[in-house]
Amino acid sequence: MGAIGRAREKLRAGRLELRAARLKDPVAKLRYLRAAHSSSGRSGAPWPLWKAALVAAAMLLIAAVPTDSDAWPAPPAETPQPAGQPPADVWLVEERDGVEYFSNGLRIDNRSAVEGIPRRYPVYDAETLELREWRTVPAGIVYHTTESHIAPFRPEQNGRLMRAGQWMLDYVRRNRSYHFVVDRFGRVHRIVIEAHGAAHAGASIWASGGELFVNLNSSFLGVAFETETREPARGAELTPAQMLAGRVLTEMLRARYRIAEANCVTHAQVSVAPSVMVVGNHLDWSANFPFEALGLADNYAAPIAAVALFGFRFDREFQRATHSALGRGLALGEELFRRRAQALGRSESQHRAAVERRYREMIQALRREAGTKEDHSS
Fold it and tell me: Is 175 left (phi over 0), alpha (psi -120 to 50) or beta?
């Protein structure tokens, strides 16, 4: 190539780099440079002009993709993962004969609805573990299994299925166990009204987007599917009707309360045993939860907050039992705990002692608040 040709190539490359620089999205920038290079028909263009630009764009793309090691929660200098966007609006069309009808096809039977304790809960800062504020709007959804005995889902078992479902509804209503139950026929029953807390999560911890929630009865809505866990590694199974009902119920709740996708989690992900500081006190949906079928990202990969923030432990048998589902979040939580300790200049044992003390303080404060509510209402 002569001097004139090289000059033309240099001028053309400069123009392309200028146009590429205006593209903020690394993916769009890389596609543009590749397309421009292909359309030029000049595979012999000098390395510094074409390939260097392509490599630079590719490096920007790699830098823009978050990895597990950058996932929240992490040392203070790092950025939380985005919470995702809520679905399109879903609205109540009408209520007739105790049943609510929604724009996305959801139907909620209100004939079993009861009251609990008015919703009010603390939100903590996930980095400092200090109290941020008190709220009354649900922040998330915890998915459960009823763990009730179930009959084979077959036509000849219809009477038995109906009786078992009614017994289950009577029990959870008496105990105010959940906000919603989805029975095996896909019927959605409101149990505890959303303005009140339900006794669905007990000792539990979750965090996302820099926010930390402790004991989720009030902060999260409880949605239970009528099914049982055969074994932790396999999880439970849902009928096609339950899948459909769970999806439209999730859509409505996320739209109504602007619930982040990252706060749609299973009971096994949040359940803890404070007396021995271990996770996995309840194992419902430790595997096989159909996140995608319900229109959600797979949150099994999210770090288990109790492990990452408070140093809760788990045995390897439990990790193996959950295989690649909950086990991913456990391993990531453990790594993030180590990194947090290093960032604060502590040994792991020093850090665990400090955050355990802070966790105990939170629990005591919540108990005092609960006692104040009871005294106030009497």
Answer: alpha
Q: Name the DSSP letter for residue 300.
A: G
**DSSP symbols for 129-154:** --EEEEE-S--EEEEEE--------S
- Strands 121-125 and 131-135 turn out to be antiparallel
| Region for 338 from its dihedrals, namely left if φ exceeds 0, alpha if ψ lies in -120 to 50, beta otherwise | alpha
How does pLDDT run across 4-30, given as a tens digit for each residue? 455 445 445 545 554 555 444 444 444
For the chain, how big is the Rg over CA atoms in Å?
Answer: 26
Residue burial 182-218, b: 16+ Cβ < 10 Å; e: rest: bbbebbbbbbbebebbbebbbbbbbbbbbbbbbbbbb
Query: Looking at this protein, which amino acid is placed at residue 334?
Result: E
Chain-centre distance of CA 251, in angstroms? Answer: 14
Amino acid identity, residue 271? Answer: S
Tokens of 205: 């911890």
Question: What number is the average pLDDT over the span 130-159?
Answer: 94
Domain boundaries, the chain: 3-64, 72-377
Q: Does domain 72-377 have CATH number 3.40.80.10?
A: yes
In the block, which residue shows the tokens 């009865």? 217
Confidence (pTM): 0.76
Distances (CA, A) of 371 to 234, 295, 364, 377, 378: 40, 39, 11, 10, 11
> Residue 369 is encoded by which pair of tokens?
């608040």
CB atoms within 10 A of CB 115: 10
